[in-house]
Design brief:
By secondary structure, the protein is an alpha/beta fold. It is about 30% helix and about 30% strand. The strands form 2 sheets. A 6-stranded mixed beta sheet has the order 5-4-3-6-7-8, sandwiched between helices. The protein has a 3-stranded antiparallel beta sheet with strand order 1-2-9.
């Protein structure tokens, strides 16, 4: 799959939204990538997962892990493609943790995945969870990288596609200054 193929899938599924959005990072944007509209289709989710799995096929991956909510379906599908376990982290009292009986053994090798990378904050929190439990992070993967500057995770990063989308701090947001109502479509409260 090419980057153009990925972007075409977003356009075909009306998953590149236009408006005034408050992102999970706290930044504001005129555009929002709604991966849930893509990942609701098992055939597309599996296709994206197989593409990511192919990029890490030479690595020994014991577990695929992503943050709730955006990383759940993707982690599961990539884990299926790699024939390993798929886990997700959640926030508990504002901190990213493993819950629901999930565990990681010391020395297990993890692939950290996320649907969209903007600042990389949630992904870095998942990396910290893996390391705090004694795991080793083999790499990071995402469907889309919309970061304004290349995020450094300290490991290999493989997005399927990159897209340039302007983001603004609230105090600098031209949409706020125009009085355009804001929507918060992300999962972080």
């Amino acid at each position: 799959m090419t980057e153009k193929d990925i972007l075409d899938i977003f356009h075909t599924n009306n998953a590149l939204l236009t408006g005034h959005f408050k992102l999970s990072s706290g930044l504001h944007s005129q555009n929002y990538l709604q991966c849930a509209l893509i990942l609701q289709h098992p055939d597309i989710a599996a296709k994206f997962a197989k593409e990511i799995a192919k990029r890490f096929s030479k690595e020994k991956i014991d577990v695929v892990i992503g943050p709730a909510l955006g990383g759940i379906t993707l982690a599961y599908e990539i884990a299926r493609a790699l024939k390993t376990r798929g886990l997700f982290t959640e926030r508990q009292d504002g901190k990213m943790v493993l819950r629901r009986g999930f565990s990681l053994k010391s020395g297990e090798i993890a692939l950290v995945v996320e649907d969209v990378i903007t600042t990389g904050g949630s992904t870095k929190e998942v990396i910290d969870v893996v390391k705090d439990l004694g795991g080793i992070v083999a790499g990071v993967a995402s469907i889309m990288d919309r970061s304004s500057e290349q995020v450094n995770f300290g490991v290999r990063f493989e997005p399927l596609a990159r897209i340039k989308i302007e983001t603004y701090k609230e105090e600098d947001c031209p949409l706020c200054k125009q009085g355009i109502p804001i929507t918060k479509p992300g999962s972080r409260k």
